[in-house]
Amino acid sequence: MEQPHGEQDALSTGRRIYLAQGNLPYNAKPYDIETLLGGSGFNHLENVHISIDPVSARNPGYCFVDFLDRQTADRALSDLKASINGRHVKVGPCQPKKQNKSRWASEDDPVNKRWGDWNSQNGNPRSMDRTQNGQGPHWALDHFDDMVDHLGGRRLYVGGLDMMVNQALHNTEMTELFAEFCPTAIGKRITPHESQRSLPGHHHYCFVDFATREQAANAKNALNGQPFGEENLKVSIARSIPKKLVNRHTVTREDHPGCDEKVFYRPSNSSSESRAQESNNWRNKN
Predict the structure, then answer these.
(1) Where are the domains of the chain?
(2) 176 membership: H or E segment, kind and range
(3) Collapsing DSSP states into helix, strand and coil, what is residue 266?
């Protein structure tokens, strides 16, 4: 389980817990976490760490919470029973472990930079740092917002990828592949639909964003059909962003005091048929 880089004191002193490994709603945001904890009697937090994918605006299914003292963290581990959107939230302890200093887990790795302190309660300037050293959750939602409003051929579908080893390696591979074209965001590698998994070849894919449609077009023309591992890349312009990612409520500071200007909130419900159609339209395979 990927953890935020830094803040080792909270981890080593037992003040950090994780919420919902694989069970946190993908659309959950910091104010959801604070509401959940506050409703269960845990009103005083130090930090809320959450990672947001800039391409989908989704979290990885879990987050981390730092409390002010170990006693409160221990009480949360034993007593916290709550849910978000009807989904029970799992709670677990975080144990210090030796950092992996391989080339895929360096301190400057983009994976580490995705994490940030969202805590809107304490007014800590770090919580409103939109860049987080060039990345971070506020930046990720700003980027998603921008792409929703101005997609305009700036997003590429990249297919023909094999199964992801880990997120850091994926980011490294895609960064190196598109280095000449200066991408602004690289999405997570996505597992293909069950109907494709048994077919020959590699069917994993991701999306890569650019500042201009010209950069995206140049990257597509240069890389589509090029060898990549055992496959040839399938690169095309993404037509649209799925409604299941776009149809979210806009939450302002008035709705959630202390939250940053505008973030995407809760996706609306949609049928399985419409979700499948949206997914197919987004991929836009050649």
Answers:
(1) 8-136, 152-239
(2) helix 167-177
(3) strand
Chain-centroid distance of CA 90 in Å reads 19
Q: What is the pTM of this model?
A: 0.72
Give me the average pLDDT of each 10-residue run along the chain (286 residues). 66 88 79 86 87 88 92 94 84 71 42 54 41 62 90 96 88 94 94 80 93 97 95 94 72 42 34 37 40
Closest of 213, 211, 237 to residue 223, by C-alpha: 237
Instruction: State the CB neighbour count (10 A cutoff) for residue 226.
Output: 11
pLDDT at 188: 92
Residues 6+ apart with CB under 8 A from 269: none
Report yes or no: 42 and 80 within 8 Å, Cβ to Cβ. yes
Summarize pLDDT for 127-138 with one digit per residue, the tens.
Answer: 334 433 446 777
Q: Give kind and range of the element (H or E) at residue 282.
A: helix 272-283
Contact between residue 115 and residue 48 where contact means Cβ atoms under 8 Å apart: no
Tell me the C-alpha distance between 67 and 88, whole Å.
Answer: 21
User: Measuring CA to CA, how many Å separate 74 from each of 14, 36, 100?
Assistant: 8, 17, 27
Q: In the structure encoding, which two tokens stand for residue 228, read together?
A: 């990549």
Give CATH for domain 8-136. Answer: 3.30.70.330
Give residue for tokens 């029973």: 81
Measured in residues, the chain has a length of 286
Count of Cβ atoms closer than 10 Å to residue 72 Cβ: 18
CATH 2.60.120.620, domain 152-239, yes or no: no
Same fold, 8-136 and 152-239: yes
Contact 80, 57 (CB under 8 A): no
